[in-house]
Amino acid sequence: QVQLVESGGGLVQAGGSLKLSCAASGSIFSINDMAWYRQAPGKQRELVAVITSGGSTNLADSVKGRFTISRDNPNHTMYLQMNSLKPEDTAVYYCNAHIKLLFQIFSIHEIWGKGTLVTVSS
After folding, report:
1. Please, which pLDDT band fits residue 26 given cuts at 50, 70 and 90?
2. What backbone torsions phi and psi does residue 52 show, to the nearest 5 degrees?
């Protein structure tokens, strides 16, 4: 089994910074794309940032210039550095990954973390 565990959420004032981490563990052969999603109260889950295994990134327009996504492939970890936070960034942030398992290398499994809450006060 594989699991994703997010950490680093919390309460921060507008203009502040937080760094989220997502650690994958279990019977991992390789990890393809990894991504951060977020879901604000009463809203649909939205894609925030995605990073390929080769390090190419894409960010939502709403966070470009403020957020940076990165990953540490040997340690199966992904990060989201969030700067200049705004109240509208308040949401539960979820880690998402497409993973090949050790004994199922011809299948790609989409795995979700349980989320970490980010609250930005004005």
Report:
1. very high
2. -85, 170
